[in-house]
Fold this protein.
Amino acid sequence: MVQELVIAIVVAVAAGALYLAAAAKVVKQYERGVVLRLGRLRDDVRGPGFTMVVPGIERLRKVNMQIVTMPVPAQDGITRDNVTVRVDAVIYFKVVDAASAVIQVEDYRFAVSQMAQTSLRSIIGKSDLDDLLSNREKLNQGLELMIDSPAVGWGVQIDRVEIKDVSLPETMKRSMARQAEADRERRARVINADAELQASKKLAEAAGEMSSQPAALQLRLLQTVVAVAAEKNSTLVLPFPVELLRFLERAQQTAPSEAAQPQQAIRPPQPGAGAPRTAPTRRAAQPQDRPRPRPPQRPAGAAATPAAVSEPAPAAASAATPSDERPGSSRVKPFAHH
């Protein structure tokens, strides 16, 4: 009898232990417990800590209340300006009503993921390419509103939605690169032209100052020489100053005028003057001035030959060269025999 009583007590204790093990539940700090009794929702949501449920009658479902980071798969779409793009995003959400997250939707994570993909494709079709690339804050806000509207009834709150990356076709990338390069080139040319304009104005002012002070040009030349000579690996070519060239030009113009003045001042003495006359300079006899050989004497009474009668005097002996007509010059005249 005692033995049967002991066995009964041991069985009761084991059954109680099993009951306690099945009924005892622990809800973590970041979780909430939703109790379903015989398939019906209990009004109270179990908070964090130790709690008991009736095994076989009540069922406890734990809902995570932390913020969930869920990547949205990349979606292919065509923008409003007919450009094919591939966009992916990330969504941050959390459960604010554990009972609605269990009762209103079968799997709130899957539902939020599908809603995010649908909203992302819709926002791509309503936007331009420039908005996707440069105005993402506005698109993020619109995408958040599109996802948050149905998620409120599921007990889910959307905290933030971010577009991660926008993938473009290679042809579009090259076109955009050429456009950006052309724009940069245009800005560079405008800046360069503006710099040239300002530099020309400053150079004009500097030229005006240097024209009033010629020494300033020499000082500027020396400064340029010092700046170039600082680098010893270069060859220095020193140009002539403009003033030095002008000085040499004036010196060349003055030298012929000074040499011509003594020739104009010295004049030959006149014959009627009291100064003694100088003997004319005798020049050397030229070949044409030499006397010709005397023709042979013919006997008396002989008839003159036509050649002897008609022989003219040498032209070189009778004609005077232009050099013989100058005053003060003398020449030896040949003897002419008739």
